[in-house]
Amino acid sequence: MGTYILKRILAIIPIFLLVTLLTFGMINLSPVDPAEAYLVASHIQPTDELLAQKRQEFGLDQPLLTQYVNTIVSISQFDFGKSYITNKPVWEEVSSRMPATIQLTFGSLLIAIVVSIPLGFLAGIKKNSAIDHFSRILSFIGASIPSFWLGYLFIFFFSVKLDLFPVEGIGTWKHLVLPSLTLALPLIALYTRLLRASVLENLQEPYILFARTRGIQEKAIMGKHVLKIAISPMITGLGMNLGKLMTGTIIVEAVFSWPGFGRYFIEAIFNRDVPVIQCYVLLAAAIFIFSNLIIDLLQMYIDPRISRKGRQHQ
């Protein structure tokens, strides 16, 4: 098992190197000249002399291979350069904004898990019941409504009409409720349907019949056997959505004026802030890679069939 886990961790290295190569290639193939973008962002009129000076300062006059090696070395030291707008280290600015995004991500995931697990499980074991129909309606609504429209709808009802929660910003738990709900509703729709389908599938497995034949109580079968195995697809979805939420809360952060990483990235795109954009892409890739690795290891612990498969590949 330890060897299998080590192999999975070592496999991250070539994947991340490939991501850095693709990012480096896209930036160099882009028609945007980083030196010109820096001068424009600094409100300086670009001239041939200034462009040549900045290209030399940024190392853009060096061979591409040298530039790529220098990029890898800098990234390994968490050095993504300085922002063209603020002239501050990019990693410093990203680090100051990440806690807000992490707070919003885990707030929405917590709501989604608390709602979707009992709802999806009950919908599966009580097929065609009232709660099953309710879960279908909720899933349809969550999958159909765009996040930005849902956010404005929540603001209108809960902030403007009822005055229960703040409209924008960050500070107290009340500021977190509406943006978290906005992000959580589509996740609830996805996880509920995944868990329901998985429960229905597992109820047809032979081990359920064997457990009932042995006289095991129905509650124990449902809780210790069905739910434990049926939750596996939901955990997979959780891993995929963790990376998506950490890097894709852009629209919701803009709607609620949430000072997170996604909003910072949008501003960087409009300002052609190349170091920030590069940092965002690489950080997004790292988050996706590590979140999926963690979820895979968690599934190996939950589902013994995956653990046995892992031992066979050692």
Task: Describe the model.
It is found in: Cell membrane. The chain crosses the membrane at residues 9-29, 104-125, 137-160, 172-191, 281-302. This is Nickel import system permease protein NikB. The chain is an all-alpha fold and 314 residues long. It has a domain at 94-263: MetI-like (MetI-like fold). Helices cover 79% and strands 0% of the residues. The longest helix has 36 residues, at 90-125. It is flat and about 85 Å long. The model has no long low-confidence stretch (mean pLDDT 82).
- Biggest sheet character: none
CATH class descriptor of the domain at 94-263:
Mainly Alpha
Number of strands: 0
The percent of residues in helical segments reads over 70%
The Rg value, from CA coordinates, equals 24 Å
Percentage of β-strand residues: under 5%
CATH superfamily of the domain at 94-263: MetI-like
Tally of helical segments: 16
Q: Could you give the order of the helices and strands?
A: HHHHHHHHHHHHHHHH
CATH topology of the domain at 94-263: MetI-like fold
Output mean pLDDT.
82
Task: Give the low-pLDDT segments.
Answer: none
Which class of secondary structure composition applies to the elements? mainly alpha
- Report how far the terminal alpha carbons are from each other: 7 Å
Give the name of the CATH architecture of the domain at 94-263: Orthogonal Bundle
